[in-house]
Amino acid sequence: MTSPRPLACAMVALAAICFACSGDRSKSDAQDPNIYRHLGSDFTLTDHEGQRFVLSEHSGVSLLFFGFTSCPDVCPLTMSRLASVMRELQREDVTVLFISVDPRRDTPERLAQYVHEYDFPMVGLTSQDAGQITTIARSFAAGLGRTSAGAIDHSSRIYLLDAADKVCDVFGSDDDIDHMVDAIDHVEN
User: Fold this and answer.
1) In which domain, by residue range, is 123 found?
2) What's the CATH code of the domain at 48?
3) Dist CA 8 CA 14 (whole Å)
4) Is residue 118 part of a domain?
5) Alpha helix (H) ranges present in the chain?
6) How far apart are CA 54 and CA 58, in angstroms?
7) More confident residue, 157 or 15
8) What is the pTM of this model?
9) Does residue 8 belong to any structural domain of this protein?
10) How far is CA 20 from the centre of its chain?
11) Residue 20 domain flag
12) Between 189 and 120, residue with greater pLDDT
């Protein structure tokens, strides 16, 4: 017959580990201003006007999103959310940076058409080098790939960059508009 003592010891040890790992629940990760600082990097791409765009030379607060103009689902929903956020914001120093993950099709001319479909400040960005887009997406830990059928698969995350081009928040598809507007309003230019 097995002694109940080893089982009791194991349960006490498990409880101690759970307690130790639980941390201080009064302070969430979202309140830590440095949690996302490791994401992103400076980059140089071509904008929708065919001009050189360097992130570190861009001024103001930005909402960065990886997508493509012919996306059938993720991009239209995300762009709709961005349009709602931009309408609600009480500031004019916020720009949407739309980095195309389909640079073969999303030329500066195509991006110019796409940008002009929206009534908020937006810069469409692309590159002739698809590898460059992959490197940038990786620096932001943005999901990017192809399905087995060859379709582009990408994340719907929106990255909030402060005026120093540092990521200070990341919004998922479940973040509501009010939360996003509040977070953006707390970023200084």
Assistant:
1) 29-185
2) 3.40.30.10
3) 10
4) yes
5) 4-22, 74-88, 108-115, 130-139, 177-185
6) 7
7) 157
8) 0.79
9) no
10) 31
11) no
12) 120
156 and 52 Cβ atoms separated by less than 8 Å: no
Which residue is it, tokens 């639980």? Answer: 22
Number of domains within the chain: 1
**122: region left, alpha or beta (phi > 0 left; psi from -120 to 50 alpha):** beta
Give strand ranges (E) for 39-86: 44-47, 52-54, 61-67
Cα 106 off chain centre by:
20
- The length of the chain in residues reads 189
- The Cα–Cα gap between 58 and 43 comes to 11
- How does pLDDT run across 53-97, given as a tens digit for each residue? 999 999 999 999 999 999 888 899 999 999 999 999 978 899 999
Centre a 10 Å sphere on the Cβ of residue 148 and count the other Cβ atoms it contains: 6
Q: Does 170 map to a domain?
A: yes
Q: Look at residue 13 and tell me whether its pLDDT is greater than 80.
A: no
What CA–CA distance (Å, rounded) separates 170 from 37?
A: 11
